[in-house]
Amino acid sequence: MSEERSSNYARILIAGGGLVGNTLALALAQRGCRVCLVEARSGALPAAESADTRHLALAEGSVMALQRLGVWNALRSEAGPIRRVEISRRGAPGQLRLDAAEHGFERFGAVVPAPRLLQALAEQVARRDGIEVCAGIEVKGSVAVGEERVVSLSDGGERRVALVVAAEGSESPLRTQNGIPVRQHDYGQSLISCSIRAGVAAQGCAFERLDSDGPLALLPRPDGRMGLVWTQASDAAAARMADSDDAFAQHYQDRFGYRLGRLHGPGRRSLWPLRLIFAERLHAERLVLVGNAAQTLHPIGAQGFNLGLRDALALALHIAGAADPGAEAVLQSYQSARQADREGTLAWTSQLLAMRPGGSPLGPLAGIGLGVTDLLPALQRGIVQRAMGLAVLPLLPEAA
Ligand SMILES: Cc1cc2nc3c(=O)[nH]c(=O)nc-3n(C[C@H](O)[C@H](O)[C@H](O)COP(=O)(O)OP(=O)(O)OC[C@H]3O[C@@H](n4cnc5c(N)ncnc54)[C@H](O)[C@@H]3O)c2cc1C
Question: Closest ligand 1 atom to the C-alpha of 15?
């Protein structure tokens, strides 16, 4: 691309080509905007070699959005549909069982390996007109000058754009450089993620077990293995990372129980320290936050990417038709539109954390066992709505 064309190419620059940055680039391109996507990594490893062994639970609303963005076809064969959800508390009677069919849905969503999702998004970005990808380049900083933000890049280049979107993940240097305050909390916990084989087929059921040490989950995959999630105190998690495969499977089995028969043959493990980071504002002059840069939540409710995807779709909706995408009124309107979803999802995540044995009391639900919640249709409806991620519906772009 010639220097002249590249300097005039896009009015919107996205810093960070992770899950949310790529989603935003696609949503903007679909609405006819030209964007420049700057990603520090120089190219994704093949998904099978990635150090990231997470399985992400996607709400059905997010699956619908990925379909509209032309990404889902590449993932379909590797996605494990979630038809039922079972939540239990270790040491307490009963469990909460939700069946998508009973709520009029085919499924609540689907489970996909995180690196495959990233790869599918990046491949669609590469196919799409209107997106310039600068891979292997870091955004070093930016300053607002008049009607523009001047962005300096690690290759010595400079871009002048009407709006910079910070999609650089939890640490977000742009958020810090621009003095956007955050609420922070270190959970003192880490999450181990891998796959494992179960003796009994899960048949589309996702299991979440609330343990006093932290939540455990087994997520359905289409190949008979399960996506394993295990949250516990960071020092205990580090010890489990050092276990042999057999010892690891046995320790997990001791906490999870035999609901799915014998668990064995764990795959490669990865470790994720957990923190809450919640930006108090979503914008500064000609700068806006999306995804983990805006909020990094505890993964207990599997909401992080689902929420970041809604950030991306909402931002695309707000800026695509705007005469000046970086105008303060436009960014303020995006912030207002996102407030209820962000705060609501944070509150929901905290509620789930409080339900674990030894968590803070949950009002009338404390101490009465999860079985009782079967009787509370309003609570069930709330859980179903969050699992489905239906807040995405008004934000969906037209089909690709
Ligand atoms: C263990 C775990 C389990 C999870 N499970 C779920 C789940 O089941 N469901 C769900 O919805 N969510 C889940 N999440 C949350 C989800 O993974 C995140 O919300 C999502 O990855 C955020 O994407 P992002 O693009 O905002 O940030 P990131 O994925 O962190 O991407 C940021 C990108 O920016 C790049 N970057 C950083 N700095 C710069 C720079 N200066 N210049 C250029 N590029 C830069 C990085 O290289 C990276 O590619 C989970 C999270 C964890 C930790």
Answer: 43
- Ligand 1 centroid–CA 292 distance in Å is 6
Name residue 328's amino acid: E
Domain annotation for the chain: domains and CATH numbers: 3-64+113-184+276-369+389-395 (3.50.50.60)
In angstroms, the Cα distances linking 23 to 65, 253, 291, 305, 397 are 9, 37, 10, 10, 12
Indicate the SS3 state at residue 366. Answer: coil
Distance 5 CA to ligand 1 centre (A): 31
Q: Is the confidence at residue 318, as pLDDT, over 90?
A: yes
Name the token pair of 90.
């270790």
pTM of the predicted structure, to 2 decimals: 0.93
What pLDDT, in 10s, does the model give residues 129-146?
999 999 999 999 999 999
Report CA-CA distances (Å) from 52 to 130, 167, 227.
29, 19, 12
Q: Which residues contact 53 (CB under 8 A, 6 or more apart)?
A: 113, 193, 194, 195, 267, 268, 269, 270
